[in-house]
């Protein structure tokens, strides 16, 4: 365990579980959770024996996106979503990462999960890229990774409408990820992790770098474009009103 917001443990030889558990903030991107995630992945990088990481949340929450305070800070031009890059920690990790999204993945929380090498969703949980609900265009690489992982039709729909989708809804839409009952998500993740942990770490790392090379090379350009769109959309008075009135509502 690193601290109360992020738990880190080796659940089986070669398999490390990283648990986001900021219960006070329902796994929104509080400063404590962000620092905990960055520190956890630094620690994982120092583990010579770690071959695979399972990234998960607690109870009904995987990750819930930006805090109201954080969104207002971007509105006031005090910061940007890229100032601290934690959204692509799973992508940058030197070993495969499995996002075991047993709970809701909201906004940037869902996006962060999609940067993992493998994704498992829960039928009962809600997944949404709700940026436009607040009136600002998507960030955190959402305009790239959703199309890359889900396909252009579903990605455009999710990004434009900002609707909520149960895992069962996405399963019917033919997403390329396993979708199972919430109670079975971790078991599914462990089965996959065990298969990966059978392989040599060096080979896993080299293959991951090869398979993610296009994402690594293309993502910075999309981040730059998303920041440019934020300059045009995030600072409108209507956005502040929406953040204040709609935050936390379904």
Q: Could you walk me through the main structural features you see in this protein, from its secondary elements to its overall organization?
A:
The protein has 250 residues and is of the alpha/beta class. The chain contains 11 helices and 10 strands. The strands form 2 sheets. Strands 1-2-3-5-7-10 form a 6-stranded mixed sheet, sandwiched between helices. Helix 2 (68-75) runs antiparallel to helix 11 (237-246) and helix 5 packs across helix 6 (152-161). The radius of gyration is 17 Å and the shape is globular.
What's this, in brief?
With 250 residues, the protein is α/β, with parallel strands linked by helices. The protein has helices at 31-45, 68-75, 89-92, 108-114, 142-150, 152-161, 167-172, 185-197, 201-211, 213-233, 237-246, and strands spanning 6-12, 15-20, 52-56, 61-63, 97-101, 104-106, 118-122, 126-128, 165-166, 179-180.
């Amino acid at each position: 365990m690193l601290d109360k917001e992020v738990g880190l443990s080796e659940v089986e030889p070669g398999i490390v579980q990283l648990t986001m558990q900021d219960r006070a903030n329902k796994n929104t991107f509080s400063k404590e959770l962000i620092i905990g995630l960055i520190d956890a992945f630094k620690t994982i990088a120092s583990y010579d024996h770690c071959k695979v990481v399972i990234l998960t949340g607690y109870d009904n929450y995987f990750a819930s996106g930006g805090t109201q305070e954080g969104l207002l800070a971007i509105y006031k031009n005090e910061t940007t979503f890229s100032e601290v890059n934690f959204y692509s920690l799973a992508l940058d990790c030197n070993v495969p990462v499995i996002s075991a999204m047993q709970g809701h993945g909201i906004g940037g929380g869902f996006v962060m999960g999609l940067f993992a090498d493998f994704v498992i969703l829960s039928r009962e949980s809600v997944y949404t890229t709700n940026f436009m609900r607040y009136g600002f265009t998507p960030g955190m690489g959402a305009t790239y990774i959703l199309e890359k992982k889900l396909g252009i039709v579903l990605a455009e729909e999710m990004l434009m409408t900002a609707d909520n989708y149960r895992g069962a809804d996405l399963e019917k839409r033919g997403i390329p990820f396993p979708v199972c009952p919430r109670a079975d998500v971790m078991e599914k993740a462990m089965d996959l992790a065990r298969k990966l942990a059978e392989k040599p770490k060096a080979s896993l790392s080299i293959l991951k770098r090869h398979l993610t090379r296009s994402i690594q090379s293309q993502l910075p350009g999309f981040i730059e474009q998303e920041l440019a769109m934020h300059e045009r959309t995030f600072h409108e008075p209507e956005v502040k009103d929406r953040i204040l009135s709609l935050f936390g509502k379904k």
